[in-house]
Amino acid sequence: MPRRALLPLLLAAATLALAPQTHGADAAPATAETKSATAATATTETAGATAPATTAAPAAAPAAPAATPAAAAFADDDGFGEAADISLPIVAIPFDTRAANLGAFAAWCENDLAWSDKYYTSGIRFAYTTPEVFRDSLPTFLRDLTTFTPLATPTATNPVAYRLHFGFTHEFYTAKDEHAHVPRLGDHPYVGMFYGTFGLSSETFNRLDSLEISLGITGPSARAQHAQNGWHRVIDRPLINGWHTQTHDEPLAQFAWTRAWRFNWLDSSSSSLECDWLPRLRLEGGTARTYAEIGWQWRLGWGLPKDFGVTTAHDSLAFTRPARDVNYDIPISWKPDSTFFFFDFRGQYCARDTSLDGNIWYDGYDVHRYPWRGEIACGVATRWGPLQLSIQEVIRSKEFRGQDREVFVYTSATLRFVF
Q1: Are 77 and 96 in contact, with CB atoms under 8 Å apart?
Q2: Candidate from 27-36, 250-259, 403-412 with smallest mean pLDDT
Q3: Quick one: CA dihedral 21, 24, 30, 36, positive or negative?
Q4: Residue ranges of the domains in the chain?
Q5: Within 13 Å, how many C-alpha atoms sit on residue 241's CB side?
Q6: CA torsion 140→142→145→150, rounded to 10°?
């Protein structure tokens, strides 16, 4: 017999065992109310025998409380969306839902401001994160992803919040000698990339998972030359001359998985300062980049949000999710609601990078790339109500033979608005 069918029998047996008995030698003494009810309902004696008194009907059981949306979302015991055989109240662990109905818009602007135009010279990204969605409301193929991939699966004791993410990214890479019409041997290739990203993420109390797919173009059709030289005309700077040597057009297709955790070191209950540690893993593969990455971020400040840190334009869009513990409805004022400093480290093994290796299907210019690379970053973030601004200085290790410095530095600024 299935275990689900045994459960109602066990409940019925327990109810009969615990219910008070009203007959036999072990019957409990009757109360005044019981005696009155018995006297009122007793029948008359007929034929010298006394008929038994009619027992009052038991009071109706109180109605079960209405299921909350969270309980409805996680009422299936196997996590596969099947309806339960019986209706039992499920009490889930409290999960803060203040930001559940809010989405977020984020913008990144990255540039080698202090080092002129060379190597990774600019990156721009725009992203939108939806409000939370129920697992059962997802399309079938996305719902299946939550079962057969590393995304978290909801249970009665482990609720999961899902969100969808959409974004566009534009990246520019140039040689060190921006005025040379042909890059010198060993200098960085000219590469432009433009791609859109779609992602699905799941969040539990201290873990974030995301799956993303990116589709786009690498080469002249990415319009990096027009964007960079058009901006130089606006700010009256010399044009970049080597863009005619950039990589040929090729389709860009990427798939990425990211997992991050959050661990508190200090919280507001024990100190005015708060501190947390945010380790993460990322695997990405495709026509543009193939690499494995491990990283972590350390944050120290006041009013730390329960999210998963500040990122660059190359990270998962899932990091733009609104923090669950923040009240974003308060108006923006001159006094920040949260301020914190952060230090970030990442190490990466890269098997392919179009920005250094050139085209896949065409012969072209490339450089000798180092497979191991790392980045360290430090920055500050401040939030006023629904608006958060962060800025960080990123130091990247030497990426290829012929690079003029042991490190490369760029600045990354992020603006996030929750609504």
Answers
A1: no
A2: 27-36
A3: positive
A4: 104-418
A5: 10
A6: -150
d(CA 308, CA 37) in angstroms, rounded, equals: 64
Cβ-based neighbours of 419, under 8 Å, separated by 6 or more: 102, 103, 104, 105, 328, 386
Give the chain's radius of gyration (CA, Å).
31
pLDDT one-digit tens code per residue, 366-390: 899 999 999 999 999 999 989 999 9
Instruction: Give CA angle at 152 (204, 310), nearest 5°.
Output: 55
The token pair that represents 86 in the structure block: 């019986």
Strands (E), 7-49: none
User: What global pTM score does this model have?
Assistant: 0.75
CATH of domain 104-418: 2.40.128.140
* Phi, psi of 109, deg, nearest 5: -135, 120
Q: Residue 352 CB: number of other CB atoms within 10 A?
A: 16
25: buried, middle or exposed (CB in 10 Å: 19+, 13-18, 0-12)?
exposed
Q: What are 24-43's pLDDT values in tens digits? A: 434 444 444 444 444 444 34
Q: Give the distance, in angstroms, between the CA of residue 70 and the centroid of all CA atoms in the same chain.
A: 18
Q: Are strands 119-129 and 104-111 parallel, antiparallel or unpaired?
A: antiparallel
From CA 48, how far away is CA 169, in angstroms rounded? 97
Tokens at 363, concatenated? 């012969």
End-to-end C-alpha distance for the chain, whole angstroms: 51
What tokens appear for 169 in the block?
């990214």
